[in-house]
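User: For my dataset I need records formatted as: sequence, then structure tokens, nothing else. Please produce one.
Assistant:
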Amino acid sequence: MPLLTCIDGSQFSFGILIQKKNIFVYDNGSLPTGATVTKILSSYDSQNILVRYSEDVYQTFAALLAPEAAVPEGLMPIPYRSLFVSGSVECAAVTARAALLLNWLHTNCFCASCGAPLFLSRTETAQECPQCRRIFFPVIAPCIIVLISKGDKILLARHLQHTTNIYTCIAGFIEAGESAEDAVIREVREEVGLTITDIRYRGSQGWPYPNQLMLAFRAEYVSGEIRVQKNELSEAAWFSRDDLPSIPLPGSAAYQLICGDWY
């Protein structure tokens, strides 16, 4: 279904208003309606609204505010990652899709072939060049995340990019020409120097930071000693399930692998 150019989203159930990596919600954590977001946007100058769209099938009216724009009255900002933890499955899915599409629309404004401004396609979720007629679809980056078992212990690692003391699973992007299973084997070998077997798919999750699709796996240890890839990880170790370190919050693929239904 196509995205729609729309400045009045009053007919839509969900109003998604994002600024940086925050989404604006009511005090009780619920999403505003499209009518509320429409009213809020009418108080901003056009330069403070980077992009907006609506979508019938998802009943969504979404907009991206400039980083310097003032916080709207009546709503509060929370990291949109929080909705994966505290929000309903429907709200989390709608927010993830909107965050990805808003970022894509904002950062892909011109045709990569001829430089002409792009316009929303009238027939599908895409942008079209009016000059050379090329079609551009949202870019989704597939990633793997894997939980490795060794007897009754599991391997968890602390990533350099994390500012908190969180331990999580081995993860990484799938490279060109790789299968997801090949990427699992390569990432484990590169990041911790281990050989694994019995790779089993467990589930997937859209992860809009900014455009990832996480493919989750379980695997079993075969051989090797942990050798941490210093430019990716600060530490990796085996943990028993009754003595886990701080791990990602519920709602993430990592939590689902470690403690949830995907274990």
